[in-house]
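Schema walk-through. Below, the input block comes first and the output block second. Nothing else is stored per chain. Lengths vary across the set, and this one has 196 residues.
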Amino acid sequence: MTDYFALLDQPRRPWLEPEQVKQAFHARALQVHPDAQLQQEARPSSDALFAQLNEAYQVLQDPKRRLQHLLRLEGYPPDRTPGATPPQIEQLFPMVAAATQRAAMVAQQSAAATNLLARTLLKSEMQNAAKELELVREKVRQIQETAIARLQQLDRCWTGKIGNGLEQFRSLYLEFSYVTRWLAEVEEKQLQLSTR
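--- output ---
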């Protein structure tokens, strides 16, 4: 397994400043970008290295993917143990499901509306569904911000090994997994409603 921290000359830590990762990526990318290679023979290996650098950047920029990578490097692949879902995530499940299902239903009804009157009558339902989605998005963002703060706190106590904090790291990984998925779902539904 490639160590993306080493590839971008970053310390192996749970939290990295996004701007620092971005600068490290740009510095390395300038050195190995395929267009910077003068010799044609060097291009294929340069293409592969650049693709790997890009993947490293994507992983280290994303708290969920960074945690997943760190857990794997440390020999603790993340798992979805039954009952391991954090309580704040379990509490939000019904709200996310209801809001996304309602938005999907309203968007579908709007798409099926064959005349202006039918679409006009659906307008208030669409607005209510959009408000509900925005409320859910804010709640999910709050969980994300809290998870980032907890990750930064764990980073301040970081000793170079996961060790005793394994369950905290796995719990945070699960939180980031749900938050990432939910934000994508909510934003997709918001887009569907906005194009109707």
